[in-house]
Amino acid sequence: MISVGIVLIIIGIVLVVVTRREFAHFRQPTDPGHPTTKVIKTGVFSISRNPLYLGGVLVLFGIALALNMLWAVVMLVLSMILCHYILILPEEQYLAAKFGDEYKEYVATVHRWLGRK
């Protein structure tokens, strides 16, 4: 499990770095409290609507596996549920209200966590 955990940690870190670069390229904030001026649909955003969250989850899941901490996996799942309701849904409502059809089309083609529809 240690090697799987390490691989997930590396993938998660790479995903976070690539996502932050994509945000910087389009001059968009990474803090959910700051206004967004455009919908990013390229790069990692073409396969995940929430690549920063996904990267963070992979890092934490990888740490839990590498250190054999089952309780951390349980806490991660609970955190993901809270994140969904406290951060993701309000962000999606904000983006839908701000960008209308452009965001709706994006939602219709890219899954929240991973993959294209």
Structure, explained:
The chain has 117 residues and is an all-alpha fold. It has one domain (2-109). The chain is 68% helix and 0% strand. The chain has four helices and no strands. α3 runs antiparallel to α4 (101-109).
Question: How do the strands and helices of this protein lay out in sequence?
Answer:
Elements: H1 2-25, H2 51-66, H3 70-99, H4 101-109
Keywords:
single chain, 117 residues, mainly alpha, globular
- Which structural class fits the helix and strand makeup? mainly alpha
Listing every helix as H and every strand as E from the N terminus to the C terminus, the arrangement reads HHHH
When the domains are counted, the total is 1
Can you count the beta strands? 0
Largest sheet: none
What's the rounded overall pLDDT mean? Answer: 95
| Range of strand content | under 5%
Instruction: State the separation between the terminal residues, measured CA to CA.
Output: 31 Å
Q: Give the radius of gyration.
A: 15 Å
**Contiguous runs where pLDDT drops below 50 for at least 5 residues:** none
| Count of helical regions | 4
Overall 3D form: globular
Helix content: 55-70%
